[in-house]
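From the methods appendix. Each design record in this collection lists the tokenized structure first, followed by the designed amino acid sequence. Records were kept in a plain field format so they could be parsed without special tools. The example shown here is representative of the layout used throughout.

RECORD:
FOLD TOKENS (172 positions):
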């Protein structure tokens, strides 16, 4: 698994740059309305069995555009993360994290998550929660390496019949 060379990453508030496989810089930024078709495409590519319907992503965007970070090479999106904070500002849920299959294993999922955690710490959010399929080893490894721990038991039928999930939490 090769990570992006560190010199290709320059952290700035709200923006970060990486090289994609064609050596084009990838920018991490808040989603814009014009991203919606690409966002839907990436979501369908990453979650082919259960993508969000277009209208759901549209409404997430309408409600939480600044909580929707995308990886953009200027032409194509290569991933995104969506996180939403409860109205008491105590808990934030990472609702979706996606990196395109051809971009995986290069540190992009970790960068998206680190930016989410950085923003939430700065806002004073106290804990981050997320759900993950119990068989999703890559995601579970990523979350554990960031300090998330899971409940002892898998939540059976969490998202409906047959849709068991592990709930993971990180105290900030
Ligand atoms: C999970 C996902 C976002 C990880 O993105 P990524 O850019 O490939 O991850 P990174 O390169 O940043 O890797 C970060 C860590 O994740 C873990 N990881 C990533 N791929 C892995 C794999 N194939 N097997 C085991 N662990 C893996 C490792 O702990 C890795 O750290 P390391 O590089 O120090 O070993 C990506 O695989 C993905 O989009 N999967 C499909 C959608 C999904 O499952 N989303 C999460 C839903 S809860």
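DESIGN:
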């Amino acid at each position: 698994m090769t990570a992006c060379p560190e010199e290709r990453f320059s952290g700035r508030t709200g923006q970060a740059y990486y090289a994609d496989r064609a050596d084009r810089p990838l920018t991490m930024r808040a989603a814009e309305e014009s991203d919606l078709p690409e966002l839907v495409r990436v979501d369908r590519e990453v979650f082919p069995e259960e993508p969000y319907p277009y209208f759901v992503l549209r409404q997430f965007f309408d409600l939480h555009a600044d909580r929707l970070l995308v990886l953009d090479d200027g032409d194509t999106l290569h991933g995104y993360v969506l996180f939403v904070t409860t109205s008491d500002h105590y808990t934030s849920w990472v609702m979706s994290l996606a990196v395109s299959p051809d971009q995986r294993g290069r540190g992009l999922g970790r960068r998206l998550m680190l930016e989410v955690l950085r923003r939430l710490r700065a806002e004073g959010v106290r804990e981050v929660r997320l759900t993950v399929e119990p068989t999703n080893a890559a995601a579970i490894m990523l979350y554990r390496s960031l300090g998330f721990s899971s409940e002892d038991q898998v939540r059976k039928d969490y998202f409906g019949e047959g849709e068991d999930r592990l709930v993971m939490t990180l105290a900030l």
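APPENDIX NOTE: The chain has two domains: 6-124, 126-172.
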